[in-house]
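Hi everyone,

Forwarding the result from last night's run.
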Amino acid sequence: MSGKVQKEVERGNIRGKASLRNRIFLGNILLVFLISLLFLISYFLLRNHLLEDARRYSPILSSHIRLEYEHYVQAKKELTSHFSSDGLIRESVRRLNEQPANQTVRMELNQHLKRNKAPLDPDILDILIFSRAGKLVAGTNIEMVKSPQELEKEYFSGGGK
């Protein structure tokens, strides 16, 4: 073979290899484009479906949440009523209103609240009992109950029966 023919054969091989690489590259680009297109179509279809479901079920969910909240509040009201009707608490508060300096009654009431009332509901952080004048009488938070400033502070005024 002459040198000229051999060069053309070599060029053809080189061109053939470049052509194969170009085809693979274009195939990969086409594949990525198709996958991206499928992803976008799936995304918009799913998004629309989720938005439609949210519109359809949000009133049901909100009414369910509202019922749960009302049940929770009702349970807390009943617990408060239970605390209010406790004879030891009522008698101790009466005695502390008559003799505010009586630390024995205050400590007994504090212990009663810690032992018997606080375990009734794990959501309760502190139990505080106030007089009708709005002053702190007793509670489970020892730092507040032992502090003379807290005991003299008026938290509210005009408490009723």
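The longest helix spans residues 3-84.

Cheers,
N.
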